[in-house]
Design brief:
- This protein has about 220 residues and is of the alpha/beta class.
- About 40% of the residues lie in helices and about 25% in strands.
- It has 8 helices and 14 strands.
- The strands form 4 sheets. The protein has a 5-stranded parallel beta sheet with strand order 2-1-3-6-7, sandwiched between helices. The protein has a 4-stranded antiparallel beta sheet with strand order 8-9-10-11, with helices on one face. Strands 12-14-13 form a 3-stranded antiparallel beta sheet.
- Strand 4 and strand 5 form a beta hairpin.
- The relative contact order is 0.11.
Length: about 220
């Protein structure tokens, strides 16, 4: 599972990353709102956010996520124990509100409870397409039961293809989804190169990824 932690206390961030990584989660830490906005929340499976950040209030990020109709599970962690803050956070769409200090096992239990309420099912997090299989929990891809050595971007591209297999994905839509939240210029050739590398890594099934000339790409299980 991919977890985004937005917490400016580096000791807490480090402890969360180390603890959650042991449970085979991929953890990204941000130390400010500005940094957090560089990551697409739609590409996360879970968000943990502090309210007191150096460049703003965590409620601002919560409002941004929920106003965009993004239903990613979100847990607030904070020293702010006022009843008004707790009510505000939950009414704005946070799935839970955890007051510091807290134990890491309690944090995990709260996260597990949120995921159960959200209907999280490990089997639903596995996707198959021909000889390819994707485990969205561990962020691992397999070809004929052998683990593929993919970069983070290659994995994200394959996940996008497999979630939309059989459908034509326009090039610009792919670029917006995978790179649109990052700073700097992303050129059209960046996608071409990433697709080329992904095809090389899924050989001899590289033809699963069809180029739809002038539009984009489509993934099939080799039955066309």
């Amino acid at each position: 599972m991919r977890i985004l932690v937005i917490e400016d206390d580096r000791n807490i961030s480090f402890a969360l990353k180390r603890f959650l990584s042991v449970h085979r989660h991929e953890v990204t830490c941000c130390f400010s709102l500005t940094e957090a906005y560089n990551y697409n929340p739609n590409r996360q499976d879970f968000i943990i956010i502090d309210l007191n950040l150096p460049d703003g209030d965590g409620f601002e990020y919560l409002a941004y996520v929920r106003s965009s109709e993004i239903r990613i599970p979100l847990l607030i962690i904070t020293v702010r124990d006022q009843e008004s803050d707790i009510i505000r956070g939950l009414e704005m769409g946070a799935d839970d509100y955890l007051i510091k200090p807290f134990s890491l096992p309690v944090l995990k239990a709260r996260m597990d409870a949120i995921l159960r309420r959200a209907g999280f099912d490990r089997n639903e997090k596995k996707i198959k397409c021909g000889k390819l299989e994707l485990d969205k929990v561990t962020k691992t891809a397999f070809l004929e039961d052998k683990t593929l050595d993919l970069s983070a971007r290659e994995y994200e591209l394959l996940e996008l293809f497999m979630e939309n297999q059989g459908l034509i994905l326009p090039r610009q839509k792919i670029i917006d989804l995978l790179w649109g939240w990052e700073r700097g210029d992303i050129y059209d050739n960046t996608l071409t190169v990433t697709v080329k590398r992904l095809r090389e890594k899924i050989a001899p099934y590289q033809d699963y990824i069809h180029t739809v000339r002038g539009i984009g790409y489509r993934l099939t299980g080799g039955d066309e």
